Amino acid sequence: MVTVESFRQMALSLPGVVELPHFERTSFRLNMPGSLGGKRIIASMDEKKKIAVLMLSPHEQSVFCAFDKTIIYPVPGAWGRQGCTIFELAKVRKSMLQDALQVVYREKTNKKK
């Protein structure tokens, strides 16, 4: 199980990640020189629903969703087909979420190079 605060700490522990508002949610963005737009979103969090959405690639999304589709699943619609993936914070193992954050972080930092 992951709390809202522990997810926030995990996301902010990644180098160059900052927390900013994103509509009704909290977003975690790369704030690194040279990154596209300077503020590429890697994850968002809905504190009321206790979910995190990670911006995985479609391939990585399929890998994580294979674990348990009731805990980790695509966002409905086009965003989900592009890899946006919901993680139920109250149900997902902390180590699984940390792995997913590392994967999305590597994907997004490698894209800018």
Describe this protein's structure.
With 113 residues, this protein is α+β, with helices and mostly antiparallel strands. The chain has 4 helices and 6 strands, in the order αββββαβαβα. It has helices at 4-12, 58-65, 78-81, 94-111; strands spanning 17-22, 25-30, 40-46, 51-55, 72-74, 84-88. A 6-stranded antiparallel β-sheet has the order 1-2-3-4-6-5. Strand 3 (40-46) and strand 4 form a beta hairpin. The model has no long low-confidence stretch (mean pLDDT 90).
Termini separation comes to 34 Å
Which spans have pLDDT < 50 for at least 5 consecutive residues?
none
**Largest sheet: number of strands, sense, barrel closure:** 6 strands, antiparallel
User: Largest sheet, order of strands side by side?
Assistant: 1-2-3-4-6-5
Query: Could you tell me the mean pLDDT?
Result: 90
Q: What share of the residues does DSSP label as strand, in percent? A: 25-35%
| Number of helices, where a helix is a run of at least 4 consecutive DSSP H or I residues | 4
Task: Give me the Rg, rounded.
Answer: 13 Å
Elements, N to C (H/E)? HEEEEHEHEH
- Based on Cα principal axes, name the global outline: globular
Helix content: 25-40%
- What is the tally of beta strands? 6
Structural class: alpha+beta
